[in-house]
Structure formats: structure tokens, C-alpha cells
Write a structure and sequence with these properties.
The complex is a heterotrimer. Helix content of chain B is about 35%, strand content about 25%. By secondary structure, chain B is α/β, with parallel strands linked by helices. Chain C contains 14 helices and five strands. The longest helix of chain C is centred in the middle third of the chain and has 31 residues, at about 170-200. The chains are: A alpha/beta, B alpha/beta, C alpha/beta.
Chain lengths: ~375, ~250, ~375
């Protein structure tokens, strides 16, 4: 026990003197929390639109007015032809082209049906989807409006209408930042626990001071505890800094209990430190540790549901996410902060993370004993 | 019958096909300064690591201060000191922090640590440097400090792995004076080196070639046996037939 | 020249001997492409929703089966109270609940107006929005079906065409992004770390004291990474064409030329970092924070740059990866030629010069 105290003293002295680690603990989370949520704005707005109007009729003008009034689009230009419009898309100046054919109004009234043409730059699938959906939605609304104006009342009222009442819970203003900040915070804590910790252990291996440890009566498990505990603490520090920034800068106040967040983070950190420890047992140099740890953490983050939803992943990938501790952390962060989930709600997540932690740490310990 | 500090019998270490240490046998008496010589790659470091409990032998027997190197490595570690040329102390901690740390992990009580560190600092004349980072000290001071710290828990044996590498002759002489001092107190010194003049300072030396012990005796007797006037020449005669070492 | 080759050989030996790092350097892009290609999708599919059918009549059943038929939803029919719905949301079990009130069919047929309620978990605004949109579309389509038999005047239909990516595959967006990311990673991080490691170990002095100009020493460090990166580009392109079925529409040569330019830019950036970093840890930190994250964030492939506030948009212009990303998209996906990307190319060339000059200056200063 006493040896652990001495080990921790030494580690903290070294860490506090190490400017790089301090920067990572203090500066980086703050900067990232300031920049990332601003950047991670997936809301589809300001879709650039070109309209090719061959009709120049009342209807076409009304439609155009309706589109511009919607607020979703930024009108770029009125090219004379589709081909000209295409050059806008090629140079990324426009995302969508709406083509209104010649004699649109006239033919619509005469034949009771007409077609409008929409071309979308689909390289970015999300934008294309939503942008297209917006256009179609506005056209549909326009359709109902002109129909109502055109047709006599009795005939019209026999058309059944389904009114869709949408209520959005938990983020009524659809603020993307509130959604991203807890997730980003989870990533930062993960980096501390899984990446910096691995580098630190391997550094001693690389320099050679680990030999001096090996030859002393320090038990191996004391040594490892001495290496991991400081990063557990630092992980909690990063969490605190993050929550503070979230509150001060974004006004995010968790709906649920903050104590619950810390409880989960405490268990989670043990789990992710296991990963850092495991990586260190497979690395001889800091460079290797860096790449190995980075590789796994990156995959974990990509598959965690931070940027893309897990439900839309193919079944086999979803299975992989079951073993990914980051997934659970991000889910729990979001659940507690945005929805006010309670202890009973997160028990399954807690157990799964604890389970993963046991596996990782055991594997790491076995490996460590074997290799040294 | 004097107590044997180290007893080694047909100790062997194999790495796959390669035999680094080939059935070496010897005994070291308490208080001896035992020199372990050999060219680079001869197996010295591997042998020493087995005796320090850092590596499990492939076959053979050995005991250090009465403890078996297979089963009782923890006990061995508690009773030995170790200092290697590569480093020994934490460069980013101060002198006093290093002393306190190693004292603590070897189980000394706080009062003991204070006493020891005060006397150590005084003996080395480092009173003005206690708060300096070890990394900022000149090499010679680092070595002397590392040596003293390795003795802080009053071990029965101290293992020195090429302790004077890269150090100037004056410091080397001072270092060996420190070694004599502790040997007189009854502490056994097991030192590896390839400075042949240092071999002269040892009570007995062995010369390892290709993993085997080619000679084991006092420097004087070895020089007589080979009819040469310096350990340099003894070494050259023995080592030039080596297959694995580099002359 | 011969001596230069000797330096290069030595550098290659260093790189090739570190199998673990090598594995990751080549494995990383492959894994990323596979994950992005097969696992990640910005689409919202298989969302778990609950349908509370209080009406339980012909119309509600018809509409519900339409929703069930959609691949976007994973439907469970349970009648829940609001409290139960809330609990389900809090446990993260469902994304939305659709409620059909009693007398749905009746209201529709006789009053010509009925209501359906959608309660969405909007903690993820985009998912929430998209689910709302999908559901609305299905319901509106059902409406259209109902009125098909009634002759309705003025029917406007829309034909929508998806350009460059008709199947809305995400690959078109991220493959260029992965290329930018991987090249940045390899070139900047590896070069800077390799140079700093020699500094740390002291072997740099030995090299510098040799009769060859320092610039050759530096160049020799960069060359293995240049070749490695080109290999990576090739492997990424092969993967995208044959595994992800994303063809290269434009000129492959142009793509390689531009990639070489970007690689050189990144190498210069790595060089600059190496002149400032004192330890490997510092080099790693600078590379990671100073480059990897900005590339991820500002290149435009993960986050939509057009949504950035003005400040971030300015910063993104300074990130070389952003320009390269545009170039690759334009050539590879849109199939356009040099005339469309000469501006971006010029920016990269200018950045390269700037970085090269600054780092050489820095380097010379440290030696003096």
C-alpha cells in the first residue's frame, strides 16, 4: 500500500512537470469543446439553389417566392438553361437545380398534371436527401394552395386529410450543440484513459526506467496501479473541465443527476484504462503505442454512434458495437444530459461497460505478466 | 565456512536456438568484489539478469543471498541493489525526490529515509543540488548518486552493470573508492565491466566468452597463469577465439 | 547522388523494420474505408418506433402496414401511455412513438379530417427530423393514394435526379476524406516523429556532422514516406473501385499528380513541426492536435463546412487538407479536369512553398 503512495507521488510529480501532458489535459479539451460543437452542425440549411424558369408565369413566380420564403434555401442564380445551372453544381456554387418547364402553368390548367424537375448534387447523401425532401415538401404545399384557390369549396372538402401533429421531446429547439457536446466530452475522456495512459507506460519501457522497477521489490500490480490511477484521476479532471465548459459556454445543464455521470465515468475509465494498458503491453516504443492506441480508439469512436447512428449500421457491425465501451459512454452521456435518465435506466449500460473492463484488464494483466 | 553470497551451478539461458549463457558455475563469497568480464555479446548481462531475478533461467541452479532464482525472486529483490549504466534515476525528478522515492519503495520508514538521505547528500557533497533535476547533473555525479541510492536499503549484494561507462578517469577512481568502502563493510559487489584496468581492482574475476566461463580466479593468479603483465592481455588471449563476440 | 541513395536506404530500413507501425500505416486506411464503406451511413434506417393503435380499425391498419413495410423503421405495436413512452425514451429503447387516436377511420371517412400524432426523441435533432420527415412522407403518400381515385385537379409531380451519386452512397463523400486524412497522418506525423527521434537519440548530430548538406538528410527522411503514401493512395483507390464500387470518373494520372503535391505539402508540414518539437511526445502531440483534428474537422468531409460560423470557415481555408479534399472530389467523383481545380492546386503549391521556406529557415537557425 505504501509503495503505491510513493509511486503515485512520483507519477504526479512527473506529470505536472510534463508540459505536453498538461496541455493535453487542460488546453486541448477546452479548445475542442469550443470548436467542435460549432463545427459539428449537421443541420441542413442554406442549401444553394439555382432555378431555371422556362415558364415565367404567375404560378412559377409564386412557387419561387414560396421557396425563397421557406428559409431553407439560398437562391444563387436564375440560369437560362439546365446546362448553365449544371456548371454551378460542378463548381460547388449550387447544390440543387429546380427546372420549371416551358408553359408549365398553361399545361397544368389544361391537362391537370405537370412535372417539375429537380437535380441534386448527391455527393453528400444527407444533404441531398434532406435538401431534395425540402423542395418536394414545398412543391407539395404549393400544390395544395393553388388547388384550394382554384377548385370550388364543396368538391375540395371531400378529400380526406390526415393532419400530422409532431411533438419533439428533449430538444425542442433542435439544438445540435446540446447533442454533440456530451458525445465529444466522452471522446475526450476516452483519449485520456486509452491513449495518453498507454504512451506513459511505454515511455518508461522505452527509456529503460522500467528495469529499475523490475529489479526492486515493487510488485508488478503495484507498478501498474501506480501508472493507471493518475490517468483515472486525470480522466475525471477532464470530465469536470468539460462539464464546466459545457455549462459556461453552451449553457448546458444536465437534465439528470451529475453524480450519476461521474459514477458511470468512474467505471468507464477503469474499462478504457484497460485498453491503454493492453496496448502498452504490445508496444515497445512510444510511436508504436501511439499508433496502436490511436487505431483502436479511432475505430471505437467511428463505430460508437457519435457521428452516425447505430441503428442504420448493418447487423454485423451492430454486433461489434456491443463490445465497444465508447458506444455505451456516449449513449449514457446523452441520456443523462438530455433526457434526465436515472440510475435504473443506465444499469444495463453500466454492467456492459464493467464487463468489457474486466475482459480488457484481465487480458492486459495476463499479457503483462507473460512479457515481463 | 564463509557464507556464499551467490552460488551458481550449471546455469543456462537459451533463447530459442541461441544459447546466451552456457552452463556457468561459480560461487561468490560475502564481501567479495566479483568482476564479471567479457566482450559485448558474451552473455554477461544475461547472466546478471538471471541473478537479479529479472529473467528465469532455462536450466541449472542458482541462489542469491540464500534465495533461489526460480522460486524466490521477490526475496532476492528485497535484498539486492542494482545500478545500470543506461540510467537508474528519474531524470525529471529532483535529487531529493529520487532519494525519497527509492527509499520509500524499498520499504524504509519516513524517519529512516530522512536520516539516510541526509547522510547520503552530505557524503556526496550535493547539499546545493538537492532541488535540481537529476537530468541537469553531470554524468559523474549522476552515477555516484545512483550508486548511493542503490544502497539506500542496505542490501547484502549490489549488482553493478557497467557502472562507469562514459565517465572521466577521476570520477572512475572515486567510484571505485566508494566500491571498496562498501566491500569493507561486508557488502558483496558483483560488477560487470569491459574496462580491463578495473578488473585489477576486483577480488576475483571471471571472463565469459560465448556464454561460457573461460577463466575464474584472482587477477594476479590469472596474469601468472597466462604469463602476461596486464588483464588486457589475459582477456585478449581468451576472447580472441570467440565466435559471437566482437573484438 | 550516390550518397543520397545511401541515406535513403537507411531511412527505408528504419521504416520497414518497425513492423507494427507499418502494419498500422497500411492497415488504417484499409480499415477506415471498410468501416466507412460498410458500416457507417448517414441514413437513418431501422429506427425503433412504437405504434400505439388506439383506433384499431381498417384505416389505421392500412397505414400501419405501410409504415411496417418501410425499411426505415423497426416497428413494434404496443399501446403505451405517455409515461411509458417517456420511460422508453429515457432507456434509449425507441426513437419515436406514433399514436392513432380512437375513431381514426371514422373521422377520416366522415369528417374528412383525422389526426395522427408523432412523438419524437429529438435529442439527436437530425435523426429526429429525418424520422419525422420519413413518417410524414409515408402518411402523405397514403393520403395521395386515398385521393387517387377521386379526380383531383392540378396534380404537380416532381421528378428528382441525384447527380454523381444516384444511389446516395456515402462512399462518394468519405473516400476523398479518408485519402486526405491518411496522407496527412502518415506524412506529417511520421516524418516529424522520425526526425525528432533522431534528435532525441543524438544520432541526428552524427548525420549533420557528415559532409552532406542538411537538406539531403531531411529529404532522405521524407522520401520513404512519400513512397509509402503513394502506395496508400493506390490501395485506397483500388479498394474504392473494386470493393466499394465507386469508380474513378476523372483522370487517374491527375489524381496521382495532385496527391503527390498534397503529400509534399504534408511532408513540409511535418518538417516544420520537427523543427519546433523537442521530444517525440511533443511531436506526437503537435501532429495529433495541430493536424489530425483540424484535418478531421475543417477538411469538410466529416462536418459540413458551409454550416460553419465565419470564424471557423476562415480557419478551414488554412488547412491544406480542405483544398485537397475538394480536388479529389472534383476529379474522382465529378470527373472534371484540371481547368476546374487549378485554383485549389495553386493554393496547395503556395502553401507548400511557404511551409518549406519557413521550416528550412527554422532548421538552419537551430543548427547555428
Amino acid at each position: 500500500m505504501r509503495t503505491i503512495r510513493f509511486l503515485l507521488q512520483k507519477e504526479f510529480r512527473q506529470i505536472l512537470r510534463n508540459k505536453t501532458i498538461l496541455a493535453v489535459v487542460l488546453v486541448v479539451p477546452i479548445v475542442q469543446l469550443l470548436i467542435l460543437p460549432l463545427a459539428a452542425d449537421y443541420e441542413v440549411k442554406n442549401v444553394s439553389l439555382c432555378i431555371v424558369d422556362h415558364d415565367h408565369s404567375t404560378y412559377s413566380r409564386k412557387l419561387i417566392a414560396k421557396i425563397t420564403a421557406s428559409g431553407y434555401f439560398r437562391l444563387v442564380d436564375f440560369p437560362d438553361s439546365y446546362r448553365e445551372g449544371l456548371t454551378y453544381i460542378e463548381s460547388d456554387k449550387a447544390d440543387v437545380i429546380l427546372e420549371i418547364p416551358a408553359n408549365f402553368e398553361h399545361n397544368l390548367i389544361r391537362d391537370d398534371k405537370q412535372k417539375l424537375y429537380v437535380s441534386v448534387n448527391a455527393i453528400n447523401g444527407v444533404k441531398a436527401n434532406l435538401g431534395g425532401a425540402y423542395v418536394i415538401g414545398i412543391i407539395r404545399e404549393f400544390n395544395s394552395v393553388i388547388r384550394a384557390q382554384w377548385v370550388q369549396a364543396p368538391k375540395f372538402s371531400s378529400i380526406p386529410v390526415i393532419d400530422i401533429a409532431i411533438t419533439n421531446w428533449y430538444n425542442p429547439y433542435m439544438n445540435y450543440r446540446i447533442f454533440m457536446v456530451p458525445g465529444i466530452l466522452a471522446v475526450l475522456v476516452t483519449m485520456m484513459g486509452g491513449y495518453v495512459s498507454a504512451l506513459n507506460i511505454v515511455k518508461e519501457k522505452e527509456i529503460g526506467t522500467i528495469e529499475q522497477m523490475n529489479v526492486s521489490p515493487i510488485r508488478k500490480h503495484h507498478f501498474i496501479l501506480g501508472k493507471l490511477i493518475p490517468f483515472w484521476i486525470l480522466g475525471m479532471v477532464v470530465l469536470t473541465i468539460g462539464l464546466t465548459v459545457g455549462f459556461l459556454v453552451y449553457g448546458i445543464v444536465p437534465e439528470g443527476k451529475i453524480a450519476l455521470i461521474y459514477l458511470f465515468a468512474a467505471v468507464y475509465l477503469v474499462s478504457i484504462l484497460g485498453l491503454g494498458f493492453l496496448v502498452s503491453t504490445y508496444s515497445e516504443t512510444q510511436q508504436q503505442a501511439m499508433f496502436l492506441s490511436f487505431f483502436f480508439i479511432m475505430i471505437f469512436i467511428m463505430l460508437s454512434g457519435l457521428f452516425t447512428s447505430i441503428d442504420s449500421m448493418p447487423k454485423w457491425t451492430q454486433v461489434i458495437t456491443w463490445f465497444n465501451p465508447v458506444t455505451y459512454f456516449i449513449q449514457v452521456m446523452r441520456m443523462i444530459v438530455l433526457k434526465g435518465s436515472g440510475f435504473t435506466d443506465i444499469i444495463p449500460h453500466l454492467l456492459k461497460v464493467a464487463g468489457i473492463g474486466i475482459v480488457l484488464n484481465t487480458w492486459a494483466i495476463l499479457n503483462y505478466k507473460k512479457r515481463s | 565456512m564463509e557464507e556464499q553470497a551467490i552460488k551458481v551451478e550449471k546455469l543456462t539461458k537459451r533463447f530459442g536456438d541461441f544459447t546466451a549463457v552456457d552452463e556457468i558455475s561459480f560461487e561468490v563469497t560475502k564481501g567479495e568484489i566479483f568482476g564479471f568480464l567479457g566482450a559485448n555479446g558474451a552473455g554477461k548481462t544475461t547472466a546478471m539478469r538471471m541473478l537479479c531475478g529479472l529473467s528465469i533461467p532455462t536450466s541449472g541452479n542458482a541462489s542469491v543471498v540464500g534465495f533461489d532464482v526460480y522460486e524466490q525472486t521477490e526475496n532476492i529483490k528485497r535484498n539486492i541493489g542494482y545500478m545500470s549504466q543506461r540510467f537508474s534515476l528519474y531524470e525529471d525528478l529532483t535529487v531529493i525526490e529520487n532519494i525519497k522515492f527509492f527509499g520509500g519503495i524499498y520499504g524504509l520508514r519516513n524517519k529512516q529515509i530522512k536520516e539516510k538521505s541526509d547522510s547520503l547528500i552530505e557524503r556526496l557533497g550535493l547539499q546545493n543540488e538537492t532541488k535540481k533535476l537529476v537530468g541537469a547533473l553531470p554524468l559523474g555525479w549522476k552515477q555516484k548518486l545512483a550508486f548511493s541510492v542503490a544502497l539506500i536499503h542496505e542490501p547484502q549484494i549490489i549488482f553493478l552493470d557497467e557502472p562507469t561507462g562514459g565517465v572521466d578517469p577521476v570520477t572512475r577512481r572515486q567510484f571505485w573508492e566508494m566500491i571498496y568502502e562498501i566491500s569493507e563493510k561486508g557488502i558483496t559487489v558483483f560488477v560487470t565491466t569491459h574496462y580491463m584496468d578495473e578488473a585489477e581492482y576486483c577480488s576475483r574475476v571471471t571472463i565469459m566468452v560465448d556464454g561460457r566461463i573461460e577463466a575464474l580466479d584472482s587477477p594476479r593468479k590469472l596474469k601468472e597463469r597466462f604469463n602476461v603483465s596486464s588483464m588486457d592481455e589475459v582477456f585478449y588471449l581468451l576472447a580472441r577465439g570467440a565466435k559471437k563476440a566482437v573484438i | 547522388m550516390k550518397q543520397f541513395l545511401i541515406f535513403i536506404k537507411k531511412e527505408f530500413a528504419h521504416v520497414l523494420r518497425d513492423r507494427r507501425t507499418l502494419l498500422i500505416l497500411f492497415g488504417l486506411p484499409v480499415v477506415q474505408i471498410l468501416v466507412f464503406g460498410f458500416a457507417l451511413s448517414n441514413e437513418v434506417k431501422n429506427s425503433r418506433v412504437v405504434i400505439c393503435d388506439y383506433a384499431n380499425d381498417e384505416s389505421s391498419h392500412k397505414l400501419i402496414s405501410k409504415i411496417e413495410a418501410s425499411q426505415y423503421f423497426d416497428v413494434e405495436k404496443i399501446t403505451m401511455t405517455y409515461n411509458q413512452i417517456e420511460k422508453s425514451f429515457k432507456e434509449g429503447k425507441i426513437k419515436a412513438a406514433i399514436v392513432f387516436p380512437v375513431n381514426f377511420d371514422n373521422d377520416l371517412q366522415h369528417l374528412h379530417k383525422a389526426q395522427v400524432q408523432i412523438i419524437s426523441d429529438a435529442s439527436d435533432p437530425n435523426t429526429g427530423n429525418t424520422i419525422n420527415n420519413y413518417l410524414s412522407t409515408i402518411i402523405t403518400d397514403y393520403q395521395v393514394q386515398l385521393i387517387e381515385n377521386i379526380k383531383v385537379p392540378l396534380r404537380i409531380s416532381t421528378e428528382i435526379r441525384m447527380l454523381y451519386n444516384p444511389q446516395l452512397k456515402a462512399a462518394h463523400n468519405f473516400v476523398p476524406g479518408v485519402m486526405a486524412l491518411v496522407l496527412m497522418l502518415v506524412c506529417v506525423m511520421m516524418t516529424s516523429i522520425s526526425i525528432v527521434r533522431e534528435k532525441e537519440m543524438g544520432t541526428m548530430e552524427v548525420l549533420l556532422v557528415s559532409p552532406y548538406r542538411p537538406i539531403l538528410v531531411i529529404l532522405s527522411k521524407a522520401i520513404p514516406y512519400l513512397l509509402l503514401s503513394l502506395l496508400n493512395v493506390a490501395s485506397i483507390l483500388l479498394l474504392s473501385v473494386y470493393v466499394l464500387e465507386l469508380p474513378i470518373i476523372g483522370s487517374v494520372w491527375l489524381l496521382f499528380l495532385e496527391s503527390t503535391l498534397f503529400i509534399i505539402t504534408s511532408l513540409c508540414l511535418g518538417l516544420l513541426i520537427s523543427t519546433r518539437a523537442k521530444t517525440q511526445q511533443e511531436a506526437m502531440l503537435f501532429s495529433m492536435m495541430g493536424m489530425l483534428l483540424p484535418t478531421l474537422i475543417f477538411s469538410g468531409f466529416m462536418f459540413p463546412v458551409e454550416n460553419f460560423p465565419w470564424v471557423l470557415r476562415m480557419i478551414s481555408n488554412l488547412v491544406p487538407a480542405r483544398w485537397y479534399y475538394i480536388i479529389v472530389k472534383t476529379v474522382m467523383v465529378k470527373g472534371l479536369g484540371f481547368s476546374s481545380i487549378w485554383k485549389e492546386t495553386l493554393v496547395l503549391v503556395a502553401m507548400t512553398f511557404f511551409l518549406l521556406v519557413v521550416s528550412l529557415k527554422n532548421f538552419k537557425k537551430r543548427l547555428a
